[in-house]
Amino acid sequence: MRAVQLTEFGGPEALRVVELPVPEPGPGEVLIRVARAGLNFGDTHQRRNQYIAKHALPVVLGGEVAGVVERVGPPMQGSGRSAGQRLHRAGTAEGSTGPLQGSSGYAAQSLHPPEFEAGERVIALLRTGGYAEYAVAPAARTFRIPDGVSDDDALALLIQGLTAWHLWRTSAHLAEGDSVVVHSAAGGVGSLLTQLAKPMGAGRVIATAGSEERRAKALELGADVAVDPGTDGDEMPGDEAAADGPGAPAAGDQRDPNAGPLTERLIAANDGAPVDVVLDAAGGAVFAQSLAALAPFGRIVAYGNSTREKVALTNGELLKESRAVVGFWLMHLLDRRDMLEAPLADLFARAARGELRPRLGGTYPLADAARAHEDLEARRTTGKLTLDPAD
Predict the structure, then answer these.
(1) What is the CATH topology of the domain spanning 2-158+336-388?
(2) Does the domain formed by 176-327 have CATH 3.20.20.140?
(3) b/e string for 109-136 if b means 16 or more Cβ within 10 A?
(4) Is the pTM of this model over 0.90?
(5) Tens-digit pLDDT profile for residues 87-114
(6) Is the alpha carbon torsion for 304, 306, 310, 313 positive or negative?
(7) How many CA atoms lie within 13 A of 309 on its CB side?
């Protein structure tokens, strides 16, 4: 089979198309004939060996695929299921009147992976191996794609959709009427966050995006206001109104050492009041200045660090303002099917009803994986990017 392999860490040129044996599914695994492999910004960090989780070389990158089950591995030892642990596809126990609830509030975790048959359309979460014509996935991290949802939409709702869902529900603990800030609101995760905000209970939704076109898109997706996230202090269109808005901090106000131009714009965009929730994947100055815009008991959730800049905080800074900093990394959900299945079913149902529209950014031939990484890092793309192994 063809695969895109990394034999040394580095730039996009380190991604090479090679021929590898088709992998064999082991116990509790399925072999998937890949129709689409998803690309994520985290893949570029992995390629440079700058990701949280490190990989040994050689490695085939790719943490998500959509395709068709080619064959199923042998059953796991002791794979018999008790009636109380059999789960319907919708995530309910046979004979029950609703979802099984565990102490976490999610559907109770099945003791054994679901059973699949050859020919079923599925998506799967992998640790590695997605940039290939075939990929092996644990059955416990494999999910059926319902009718009415395309492979591309399903992939956009897997890593990015699950991230958006859990950012609101699990990490931010979104409460009814909370004012929220969605950074990079026109991107893959950001566009889903923006669409889900009000249906999940948010009050005022403030989006940030770096161009007028992207800000206009964020407004179309449901944001109440969209602002420029520029943090270098240079004057930008709308800065005058933001700085002079009701309740905005006066220029040069040093009550919060993290405050800056973005802080002022966010507070002004919230009618002069500090905000309740900020979701940030940039880090650096965006994170610091957003933190300064939080109201008492406000929460900022860090789910990425695209700027590769670190921010130092003290416990005193958090204590003084009663603020919370929360981190989120989807990898911690990989072995928690109870935190994957029900949220994914919710996302698929919203998409099938037309309430949620994943933003698709284009499909590249497998051989053009390096170009896809270049475009992703250069911010030349918007929405979900995929690779087509058949092209």
Answers:
(1) Quinone Oxidoreductase; Chain A, domain 1 (3.90.180)
(2) no
(3) bbebbbebeeeebbbbbbebbbbbbbbb
(4) no
(5) 333 333 222 223 322 323 333 344 456 7
(6) negative
(7) 11
